[in-house]
Amino acid sequence: MNTKETQRLVTKAQQLCEQRGARLTPARREVFEILAAESGAVGAYDLLDKLKAAVPNAKPPTIYRALDFLQEQGFVHKITSSNSYVLCSHFDHHHPVQMLICERCGSVQEIQSDGVYNALLKQAEDQGFHVESQTIEAHGTCSNCRAA
Ligand SMILES: [Zn+2]
Ligand SMILES: [Zn+2]
């Protein structure tokens, strides 16, 4: 993502935080900016290394607290299978999360399919299971890598 786009996202996140009475502290903002500049998912320790460039005394709890906050606000999704984090591409509303993860280049694309969401919800309900959130991770090869 280019710098202008990153700036636009940061401004949007800041406005949402103000509306919600949440505080986008400098460390949280920095982590947000790092993720906004990446096209793929970033592991917590890589994030910490990058964060140290701006916040030299950053420690693992700094990054985990920032990531918890960003996830609560819906700005960031955690990719459980690789223990990494990616910026949400439409973070102004809560939504089911479906991610296409490229195994070659690490890019992550978010899709939103109500069909997938509803099918899973229905099957879960048939089992008497109440779903609170859904995160679906699909692994494969992205169009760029397939064309290469
Ligand atoms: Zn999202
Ligand atoms: Zn790829």
Automatic annotation (TrEMBL):
Gene3D superfamilies: 3.30.1490.190, Winged helix-like DNA-binding domain superfamily/Winged helix DNA-binding domain. It is found in: Cytoplasm. GO terms for molecular function: DNA-binding transcription factor activity; transcription cis-regulatory region binding; zinc ion binding. SUPFAM superfamilies: Winged helix' DNA-binding domain. Zn(2+) binds at residues 102, 105, 142, 145. Pfam families: FUR. Keywords: Cytoplasm, DNA-binding, Iron, Metal-binding, Repressor, Transcription, Transcription regulation, Zinc. GO terms for biological process: negative regulation of DNA-templated transcription; regulation of secondary metabolite biosynthetic process. Binds 1 zinc ion per subunit. The keyword Repressor applies. Its main location: cytoplasm. Its cofactor is Zn(2+). The keyword Cytoplasm applies. It comes from the Bacteria. GO terms for cellular component: cytosol. Homodimer. Belongs to the Fur family. PANTHER family: ZINC UPTAKE REGULATION PROTEIN. This is Ferric uptake regulation protein.
